Structure formats: C-alpha cells, structure tokens
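hey can u check if this looks right to u? its 503 residues, i copy pasted from the old doc so theres a chance i mangled smth
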Amino acid sequence: MRILITNNTLGSRAGSELYVRDIALALLKRGHQPIAYSSMLGAVAEELRMATIPVIDDLASLALAPDIIHGQHHLDAMAAMLHFPDTPAIYFCHGWIPWEEMAPEFPTIRRYIAVDDLCVERLHSTQGIAPERIRVIRNFVDLERFKLHAPLPVKPRRALVFSNYVGEGDILSNLRQACTARGIELDLIGLASGHSENQPERILGQYDIVFAKARCALEALASGTAVIVCDAAGLGEMVTPDNYETLRRLNFGIRCLRNPLSPDLIGKELDRYDAAQSREVSLRVRAEAGIEDAIDLLLNTYQEAIAEPCERLLSKESFLMPASRYLWRVANAIKVRSPTTARALTEAEAVSAAARARAEQAEHHLAEQKLQLVQLDAALSEQRQKVTEVNSALSEQQQNVALIGAALFEQRQRSDLLEQERWQHESLKHAISQRDDEITAMKQAASQRDDEISAMKQALSRYESEITAIRRSTLWPLVNGLYRLKERLWNTPMAALKARKAR
C-alpha cells in the first residue's frame, strides 16, 4: 500500500514530526510504501531519508498517486488532497489548541482520527464532524526503543523535565525549588532549553521522576519512571493506577494541566511518589500502548477508507465549493500568522487554554464544594439525629445503670447475709468439731472404764471361783459353824448391853 503522509513541518524533533517518523518506519517494516510530504523539511526529513523513506516538499515530484492520504495539519493535507482528487484520505487531529490541527471538510476525507477524547470533542463540538466519521487511535510507544528499566528506588533521587516548551525561568525555578527541598536532583532536556536529546530512550532510565506531557509522558512511563504530568501551560497529577485511564484518554495533555506551577503544588505531587504504583502503571503502558497495536488500527482504518463507496464524488467540480469554504476559513488566520507573530499567537492560545482549563477547574471545584456542602448539611442533620438517638439511649442506659445499682446494692446485702450465715456455719462447724473431740475423749474414757470394769469382773470372777472352791472344801462347814458361833456369842451380850443403856 502506497501511503502519502502529510505534516506541517519535518524539521525539529517535536510531537507530530516524530509521530510521522515512527509510523512511516513501522509501515515500511511491514512491507508498505510510506511517503512523507511537508512544505518545510529539516532534521526529521533527513532521518526518514536515511531510513530509505521518500520525503518530498513538492507534490508535483510524485508521479504515481498514492492509495491513501494520511493527512496531518490542514494546509499540507489540503494541498495533497487537491493534488490527488481521486485518492481517499483520512485526517488526523493531534491537538486541541494548534491552528494547524483544524479539520477541513473535504469530500475525499473518509475518516477523521483523534488521538484522545479532547480531540474527539474538538472535531464534533467545534468543527461539525459527525461522530460516526470519527475514530480514536491513541498515541503509542515504540517498545523496542524504550526498554523497561530496573524497578525504582523507594525514595526518588533524580528527576527530569522532558519538554520542548520549558526553558530557564520561573517554571524551572519552581520545579527545582520543590525538588531540592526533597533532596532530588533536577535536569532539563528539550528544544526551549537548548538541550535537545535525539535519543531520549538512552537517558530516561537514569531518572526516578519525569515531568512531561503527551508523547514524552507516555515514553517515560514505558521506560519505567514515575511521571508527573507537567508542561509550561500548567501542572497535572502524578500518574497512578487510579488516574491512569483518565489521563491516558486525555493523552496526558492540556486538559490535565489544570494547576499552577507553584512550589507547594509541585511538592504535593512529588510527595505522592510510590515506586510500586509507578511500576504497575509502566507495565500497563507496555501492555496496551505499543506501536504495533496502533499500526494494526491504522491499517484497518486505511482499508475502511479505501473500501468505502464513492457516491458523493460525482465530479471534480464537487471539490470547488469545499475548497472555497476551506480557503475562506483559513484566509484571516493566514493573514495574521506572520512569522514574527505565529509563535506569540501560539503561546497566547496556550495561555488562554490554560486559563480556560483553570477556570473550568475552579467551576468544577466550586460545584464539588457546593455538593460537599449539601452532603455536609445532610451529614450534619444525620449526626444531629444520631446525637438525639444517642442521648435517648444514654438516658435509657442511665436508667438501666440505676436499676443495676439497686440490684447491686440488694446483691451486696444478700452477700453480707450469706457471709454472716457462712461465718455462723463455720462457728457451728467449729463447735461441732469441739463436741466431736469431747465425745471422742469421752469414748476413750468410757473405753478405759470398760477395760477397768472388765478387769474388775475378771477379779470378781476369780473371787467367786475362790469362794466356790472354799465352799466346796471340807473345812467350809467347820468355818461356817465357827462364824455362826461367833455371831451368837458376840451379838447376845451386845444386845443386852444396848438394852441396859436404853433403860
């Protein structure tokens, strides 16, 4: 497939110039025939020629018509589409602000391509392009050039400003002040500083944090660094897994740069540095933002444009009205954009866009604060209700505490009675123990008496035995007779004596 790619210039190493270089090299690698056209050539044109890609600044030098025109920047794109009126075209919009990105309405344009959501908004909201004619092909990274470097340190040590628009001045001074306060060394590369780097992939891995926007931010992320979205127009956020999708859809561009570049705000973003989160973002970029996927989408779009029916191209005269309207749109702008005023106008547009972005941000913050105020009122009302409920619960708890206190007092009284009963029980046990001891002693005494009685019974038994023996002896009658004789002899005189004394 022969593909004619147009661009405003092919001079300095800026965003759209490098975009042309990268897609031309990728298309050549896949066996297609890219041709680069611009009315202003330079260093990037030489890179393309060295890679054997044809580069022209005069369309008349191209004898064979291309199969598709890949249009970027309306002046050069319109020149190509008018020169090859039978060739279908697609038109790319790379930015919200630049005048060169204005989209012409021309019959041979089959598709309009936006690189982010803001460009989509510019096409259908300010230039009347029907949404169904718009496709989105987001910016990409050549992953073979930008390798993933070693994991970041826990604490950042080196930072880089990677921008063509930041030079020596207040912006760099504020960035350096915030970095120095945190022990971070800061370097700067880019056209405005006079330190342009032709091969940024060689040095990005030497830094822990990169301040950049758009393409530069995406390349730094793919290299494994932490990125704070930042440029001369303003300050954005540290890219994290939570905000990556939103920032990516905006191409890390102008709408992301809503804050002023003050040391305090820069410092807040530096303090959000998290090596693990930055690594997660880098791996995601490498998984979904490689150039090969973008080239697949681009080739599919080329094929759609070529295959689309051409009912509306009835004659070459049908080009005249769109071409006239296009010239009318650009006439006044061309008249005021002299070489001496073009840069100032671009800077003024950038400042105006930044101011609008800040105004939008202020309105957004105000709306958020109003919403927060409503939410706070609702929360306050809810808290008041909760306080009432808590007070009611507290009153109930106090009643419960009083009941518990009364129950506790009753329990203490019962405890005292139980303690008294326990003491009496212990005293009774002690008395019973003493009585048991006395009974034991009495039992022991009784046992001794029983032993004594038993001994006496034994002695009595012996006596009885002896008496029995005596009575059985032959002398017993003699002794008994003597006893009775003695009794008579004794008792009779005594009785007479007692009688005389009685008289």
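Residues 339-472 form the longest helix (134 residues).
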